[in-house]
Design goal:
Layout lengths: L10 H13 L5 H16 L9 H10 L5 H21 L24 H12 L9 H15 L3 H5 L6 E2 L4 E4 L8 E4 L2 H17 L19 H14 L12 H16 L4 H12 L4 H4 L7 H21 L1
Helix pairs in contact: 2-4, 5-6, 6-8, 6-10, 10-11
Length: 318
């Protein structure tokens, strides 16, 4: 991702700040974009001080009032961190200590039914434009990969040929969120899809191991904008008209819930398995994984059945 070019009076400080955070191990790509919004605001306001004053910060916060709560928090949070950084060099610079914005209490997600996921995959196979292109194979595999591995969409689109290993059934995610590298296992059915895609990809566009795994019909790296458009067409065609709209990120929720359901069926100790799920999803610890754990209909039925068996067993022992 190409860095935002800062243009305000604080451009040098912002550039040094982003470099400093990356030295600490953060990728700071999204934060770089969000800081660019503040930079553009300062430029448009013709702000001329080399430090921050409270008035300009408060004005910017008021300007973001139209944004959704989560987006607004992300946009303002980077200003808070940057204000602390700048204060070390300019003691008179204002420090933003608190962000009094409430996040939505309800987590947004949509658990796909077997019929819905089959419909999306079937639609992907029908994409034939442009003629003889990889588009249908690419989109079909991308959806399947997200659903069965829990990859973030940006992680999937950043994969190179050498990151996907059919022999070991693994995907190597380089510098995911929080700059964490990790291996993700693939199911044998996913490996079959991957193998088919690679053979068609190599026949269409011969490549090196460092070339992007997902490409367009012209051989360029597949972009989020392209797959997002196809995804919106797919959910509309399949009649998945939920509100809020289905997102790529919902596939991670589905992956986590499917893992839970599978472990329940196998009689596994769920608490012992959660660290494995956290590692697979690329979380620092299981606290980040908890927001993905939802009680699907199957899990509710399984829990009820186990409770009934436990209660019945205790009654016999008495």
């Amino acid at each position: 991702m190409k860095d935002k070019q800062f243009v305000s009076i604080l451009r040098d400080s912002m550039t040094n700040f982003v470099e400093f955070k990356r030295v600490q191990g953060f990728d700071y790509n999204a934060q770089n974009v969000n800081l660019g919004y503040f930079d553009r605001f300062l430029y448009e306001q013709n702000y001329r001080k080399e430090w921050l004053d409270q008035t300009i910060v408060n004005t910017y916060i008021e300007k973001t009032a139209h944004l959704a709560p989560n987006t607004r928090i992300s946009v303002i949070s980077i200003v808070r961190v940057f204000s602390r950084y700048l204060h070390h060099f300019f003691p008179q610079s204002y420090v933003l200590h608190d962000i009094s914005i409430k996040r939505p209490t309800k987590r947004r997600y949509h658990l796909l039914s077997p019929k819905e996921i089959k419909g999306l995959l079937a639609y992907a196979k029908t994409i034939t434009m442009p003629k003889d292109s990889l588009r249908s194979f690419t989109f079909h595999l991308l959806l399947g990969l997200l659903y069965t591995t829990g990859l973030r969409i940006n992680e999937a689109l950043s994969l190179t040929m050498k990151d996907v290993n059919i022999q070991t059934s693994t995907i190597f995610v380089r510098k995911g969120k929080f700059s964490k590298d990790r291996y993700v296992m693939m199911h044998h059915s996913t490996c079959k899809m991957v193998k088919e895609y690679i053979s068609k990809r190599m026949y269409s566009k011969p490549c090196d191991e460092d070339d992007p795994f997902f490409i367009t019909s012209s051989g360029k790296p597949l972009t989020y904008k392209t797959v997002s458009y196809m995804f919106q067409c797919a959910i509309k065609k399949c009649g998945i008209l939920v509100k809020p709209k289905l997102r790529f990120h919902d596939f991670r929720h589905n992956y986590a819930c499917n893992c839970l359901a599978k472990w329940y069926r196998e009689g596994k100790n769920i608490n012992a398995m959660l660290p494995i799920l956290a590692t697979s999803l690329g979380h620092v610890d299981i606290r980040g994984t908890q927001i993905y754990l939802h009680t699907s209909e199957y899990i509710r039925e399984e829990v009820a059945q186990r409770f009934h068996q436990f209660f019945k067993k205790n009654r016999k022992e008495r």
